[in-house]
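Need a sequence for this fold. Nothing fancy.
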């Protein structure tokens, strides 16, 4: 069936990219129209009533329903357990404030660098976090629903970041926008292959949110039969996971994957590796006990701050995150192993996908993972020996053959190799990290999906910021 250029779907891509990268203009526009009062609007759902707000934005009327609950608070004994659907309520829930972020730390690398700071939670963080934000045109009726799954390496992220304000997308694309939340880090992905900590809890949170949307979105003017998922980084990887998961089948028919795929090296752990990480964390907080049940109970007694304080002390490889999706579990993938499913094409193949990457996928991560040579305040330059060292660090846990291949591919013609420090060599490292940890896996997935019933589109984003 041949990979298709974006064509008609490109407008949707642009709106998604606006939602991800371009909504700084939304804040300015909001400030300009802040004198206009918000009008309360109520929606009666199956299990209770909520009160949102209607306002004027981009000279149009838009309705916002924020912090809409879809699950019971996963606190106390429910930590590490699958989510439970929100029970009926008798009062009217105030849906005028952005949803809290699930419990996470803050990136303190450089608080004056907006490229880092903009990803930090801008609302309170809490284990009680199973809420979503919804935006819809005031006259919405049977519109396509775009469900945003935020990224953040499964350890950070929020549906309420300034960049993810859905008003502009809802109005310009005439869709209903839903930003969902899901548990992160050990709270969402710790794994002991036990009913009290089965792993992939964050994925089950996402799935529960999808069920809620399918059941309730018509009350907001959305069409439950026309749901499109879009996500960035871990959010994009999550979409692929839902193509495999039996419980997610039939929920969505389109997906936009921005800079992420389930086969990314940082996205998917084997059960063995996931269990190793979980026991390492238990060791670090003095919770490894003689039985799994006792270990889990001890971890539930630790404060969230105690768990997060040790999370980055795990024995991690280059661009390996503390916790990720586990390839086989009891509740989410069930009878499937995700590694096997990807290679044997055991996933939904009737979904239309747009898969994309950016020009500089590696740059951001090299600041954190190769700090000796990459810094946010300077344009990096490398010598040949320094490039070789970067390759050795990036592929330290892989066979020497891989490191040799990387040196061959990214050094190019020996006659063109710089003799001293060079920006070109630093650019080669940026490209290498981006290719290996993001781009190549996305292209591989597109090739895998190309002979299915769904259409496959690819984009490459290379417009620099100004």
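Here you go.
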């Amino acid at each position: 069936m041949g990979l298709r250029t974006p064509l008609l779907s490109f407008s949707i891509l642009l709106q998604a990219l606006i939602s991800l990268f371009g909504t700084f203009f939304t804040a300015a526009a909001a400030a300009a129209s802040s004198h206009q009062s918000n009008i309360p609007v109520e929606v009666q759902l199956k299990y209770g009533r909520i009160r949102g707000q209607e306002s004027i934005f981009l000279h149009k009327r838009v309705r916002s329903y924020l912090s809409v609950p879809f699950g019971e608070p996963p606190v106390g004994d429910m930590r590490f357990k699958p989510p439970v659907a929100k029970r009926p309520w008798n009062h009217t829930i105030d849906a005028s404030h952005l949803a809290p972020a699930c419990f996470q730390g803050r990136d303190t690398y450089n608080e004056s660098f907006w490229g880092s700071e903009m990803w930090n939670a801008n609302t309170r963080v809490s284990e009680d976090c199973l809420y979503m934000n919804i935006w819809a045109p005031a006259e919405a009726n049977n519109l396509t629903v775009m469900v945003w799954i935020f990224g953040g390496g499964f350890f950070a992220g929020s549906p309420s970041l300034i960049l993810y304000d859905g008003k502009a997308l809802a109005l310009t694309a005439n869709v209903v926008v839903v930003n969902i939340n899901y548990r992160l880090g050990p709270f969402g992905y710790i794994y002991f292959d036990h009913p009290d900590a089965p792993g992939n809890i964050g994925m089950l949170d996402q799935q529960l949110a999808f069920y809620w949307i399918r059941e309730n979105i018509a009350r907001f003017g959305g069409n439950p039969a026309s749901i499109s998922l879009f996500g960035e980084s871990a959010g994009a990887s999550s979409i692929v996971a839902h193509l495999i998961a039996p419980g997610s089948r039939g929920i969505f028919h389109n997906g936009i994957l921005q800079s992420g795929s389930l086969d990314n090296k940082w996205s998917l752990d084997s059960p063995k590796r996931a269990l190793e990480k979980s026991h390492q964390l238990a060791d670090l907080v003095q919770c490894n006990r003689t039985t799994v049940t006792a270990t889990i109970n001890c971890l539930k007694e630790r404060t969230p701050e105690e768990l997060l304080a040790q999370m980055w002390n795990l024995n991690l490889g280059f661009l390996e995150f503390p916790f990720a999706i586990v390839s086989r579990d009891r509740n989410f993938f069930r009878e499937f192993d995700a590694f096997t499913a990807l290679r044997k094409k055991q996933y939904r193949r009737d979904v239309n996908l747009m898969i994309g990457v950016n020009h500089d996928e590696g740059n951001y991560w090299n600041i954190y993972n190769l700090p000796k040579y990459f810094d946010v305040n300077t344009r990096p330059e490398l010598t040949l020996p320094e490039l070789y060292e970067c390759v050795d660090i990036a592929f330290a846990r892989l066979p020497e053959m891989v490191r040799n291949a990387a040196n061959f591919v990214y050094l190019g013609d020996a006659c063109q190799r710089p003799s001293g420090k060079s920006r070109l060599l630093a650019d080669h490292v940026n490209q290498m990290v981006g290719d290996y940890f993001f781009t190549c896996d996305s292209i591989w997935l597109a090739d895998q999906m190309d002979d299915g019933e769904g259409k496959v589109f690819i984009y490459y984003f290379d417009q620099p910021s100004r």
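For context: The CA atoms of residues 157 and 439 lie 21 Å apart.
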